[in-house]
């Protein structure tokens, strides 16, 4: 299998993780939004925007988790969520 395009348009900071059910999650930044796409073992699910921000990181596990930084004003916050 060759390379596969997961995100059309500008995207950066791609990260990957898995969960205990063998789902694979890719997350990236697109236009200041954190986008996640899941491989369920047979096909890619549609991309899902989960928030605004930058610098995503993901952790494998049950469930897989994602963290990113956002700036709702003049300060910065770190947000953590379970991946669907």
Structure summarized in a few sentences:
The protein has strands at 12-18, 24-30, 33-39, 48-52, 54-59, 65-70, 77-82.
Notable features of this structure?
84 residues, mainly beta, 3-stranded antiparallel β-sheet, 7 strands, 52% strand
Number of strands: 7
N-C termini distance: 26 Å
Structural class: mainly beta
Query: Helical segment tally?
Result: 0
Low-confidence stretches: none
The amount of helix comes to under 10%
Radius of gyration: 13 Å
Major sheet, described briefly? 4 strands, antiparallel
Strands in their spatial order, largest beta sheet? 1-2-3-4
Average pLDDT works out at: 91
Question: Which percent range describes the beta-strand content?
Answer: over 45%
Shape: globular
Order of helices and strands: EEEEEEE
